[in-house]
Amino acid sequence: METQWLLIEVPETESYVVIIPIVEKSFSSPGFDDHVKICTDSCSTQVRASSFDAIAYVHVAKNPYNLMREAYSALRVHLDSFRLLEEKTVPRIVDKFEWCTWDVFYVTANPVGVWHGLKDFSEGDMAPRFVIINDGWQSVNFDDEDPNKDAKNLVLGGEQMTARLHRFEEGDKFKKYQKDLLLGPNAPSFNPETIKKLIWKGIEVEHLGKQRAAAISARGSDLAEIELMIVKVRE
C-alpha cells in the first residue's frame, strides 16, 4: 500500500513504463495490489466518490532514467503543485549534521531512547544541529481497532503505512512523558539491546507474514501453525 510509483520493463518493445499515483481533489492513491489495481483513499469516511478522472499518470520511454525525468516534468505542468529538483534552491541546513531517529529506532522511537541518543552524540563531540523524530511519534491505529487508542506493537516500517492518524497529537509514549524526567534522580534506564530485540522480532513477524500470505494463496495446511507462531512472536 505504500508504493509511491511502479516501474515496469517491457521486453517486447524494449521500453519501460512508469505508473505514478497522483492526488485528485481529496483523494490520494498510495499504492497497488498484485494485479496493478490502484488503491485510492480519502482517509475519511465522510469523503467518498464513485469515479475519478486522473488518479495516476502513465509514461513510456526507452531509457528508464529519461523516463522518470520526462514523467515528473509532465506531472509538474499538469499538477502545478511542486517543483523539480533543478528548480529548487538547496537549503543551508544540508551543511549541518543531522540525526534521524529512523536509523536506530524505526517506529519504536520513544522519549528515553531519543534523549540517550542525543546524549551519546554530545559526549562524542558529534552533537547534531538538526534532529528528525521520524515514524513512531504519531497517534495511529488500524481500521479494525479501537478508534481512540494507539496501535500497539508497531516495530518496522511498512506495517504502520496502512494505519491512520486518529488525532493530530503525539502518540501515548510521547504524550505521557513528564518534563525533566530524564534529568532527575529517578530517571528511567535505557537499554539499546531492548530496541534491537524488538526490531529482530519485527523482522521475524514480517517473514512469518509473507509465509502466511503464501499459505493462504496455496491453501496450505500449515496456515494455523504459522498464525500461532506470529502470535507467540508478538507476545
Topology summary:
Blueprint: E1 6-10, E2 15-21, E3 28-32, E4 38-41, E5 56-61, H1 64-79, E6 98-100, H2 102-105, H3 111-123, E7 130-132, E8 138-141, E9 164-170, H4 172-175, H5 192-218, H6 223-234
Parallel strand pairs: 6-7
Antiparallel strand pairs: 1-2, 2-5, 3-4, 8-9
Helix pairs in contact: 5-6
Description of the structure:
By secondary structure, this protein is an alpha+beta fold. It has three domains: about 5-85, no CATH class; about 90-190, no CATH class; about 190-235. The chain is built from six helices and nine strands, in the order βββββαβααβββααα. It has helices at about 65-80, 100-105, 110-125, 170-175, 190-220, 225-235, and strands at about 5-10, 15-20, 30, 40, 55-60, 100, 130, 140, 165-170. The protein has a three-stranded antiparallel beta sheet with strand order 1-2-5, with helices on one face. A two-stranded antiparallel sheet has the order 3-4. Helix 5 (about 190-220) packs antiparallel against helix 6. The longest helix is centred in the last third of the chain and has 27 residues, at about 190-220. The radius of gyration is 22 Å and the shape is globular. It starts with 5 loop residues before the first strand and ends with a helix. The mean pLDDT is about 85.
